[in-house]
Amino acid sequence: MSSSDFIAALRGLSHRYWGTHPFHERMHRGDLSEDELKIWAANRWYYQCVLPQKDAAIISNCPLPEIRREWLDRIVYHDGARTGEGGTERWLRLCTAVGLDREEVLDQRHVVPGVRFAVDAYVTFARTKPWLEAVASGLTEMFAGHLMQRRVADMLANYPWIAKEDLAYFTNRIDKVSGEGKGTLDIVVRHAVTREQQEKAIAALSFKTDVLWSMLDAIERAAAKE
Ligand SMILES: O=C(O)c1cc(C(=O)O)c2c(n1)C(=O)C(=O)c1cc(C(=O)O)[nH]c1-2
């Protein structure tokens, strides 16, 4: 495939992205109850927790120093340079804003099996597949910037108890993701040079859209019981 056909095939998976999941649509419309928002935040915490381990798995499988160097930043971004900083901490702030105690988030008591299975599958993918496929699976970030922008606006408009500062996780991430999304695409296009590698990269991105979709299916089910 030419680079442009390859990129078009990757972008063509956008319809599988979780932006159109019914639970996200309800969230954006302002239809979630306080308890449903809590379930969402506490479950997504599990995803936030494992991202650095997923990224560390990519680094450990990658023989190329320039890729490892570039990827390292992601771990520090989420974990922070020291305790109390970083994306994970910003997620915790959002959790407390929606009414959760730190403790009930940290001990993962609200994490439902379907979320755990989906997120663990993402980490296992990164641990066991060639590094390039694991990198390609992160390309959902190509679709994330726009969605997060909408989310910030919609949450501020529809959930009066959430303040702009509580959404620092997303506002901070929006800037980061536009750069990272492009960087990741560059890496994938540069290193997937055979048809087979390109097909595997497309399959990896498709797998990741399934991971995210399954997470929201499980969250939606758990929220319906509230
Ligand atoms: O809020 C979102 O919709 C959203 C989506 C995604 C994504 O598409 O994978 C990520 C994030 N947020 C995010 O904040 C984040 O740090 C992140 C890391 C990754 C990844 O696969 O390494 N995806 C995402």
TrEMBL record:
Protein name per UniProt: Pyrroloquinoline-quinone synthase
GO terms, molecular function: pyrroloquinoline-quinone synthase activity
HAMAP family documented for this protein: PQQ_syn_PqqC
Catalytic activity, reaction form: 6-(2-amino-2-carboxyethyl)-7,8-dioxo-1,2,3,4,7,8-hexahydroquinoline-2,4-dicarboxylate + 3 O2 = pyrroloquinoline quinone + 2 H2O2 + 2 H2O + H(+)
Designated gene of the protein: pqqC
PANTHER family xref list: 4-AMINOBENZOATE SYNTHASE, PQQC-LIKE PROTEIN
The Thiaminase-2/PQQC domain, residue ranges: 9-217
Pathway field: Cofactor biosynthesis; pyrroloquinoline quinone biosynthesis; Cofactor biosynthesis; thiamine diphosphate biosynthesis
EC nos: 1.3.3.11
Gene3D superfamilies the UniProt entry points to: Heme oxygenase-like (1.20.910.10)
Keyword Oxidoreductase: yes
Domain of life: Bacteria
GO biological process assignments: pyrroloquinoline quinone biosynthetic process
NCBIfam families assigned to the protein according to its UniProt record, in alphabetical order: PQQ_syn_pqqC
Keywords: Oxidoreductase, PQQ biosynthesis
InterPro entries: Haem_Oase-like_multi-hlx, PqqC, PqqC-like, Thiaminase-2/PQQC
Primary enzyme class: oxidoreductase
Chain's role: Ring cyclization and eight-electron oxidation of 3a-(2-amino-2-carboxyethyl)-4,5-dioxo-4,5,6,7,8,9-hexahydroquinoline-7,9-dicarboxylic-acid to PQQ.
Keyword hit for Transmembrane: no
SUPFAM superfamilies, per the entry: Heme oxygenase-like (SSF48613)
Family: Belongs to the PqqC family.
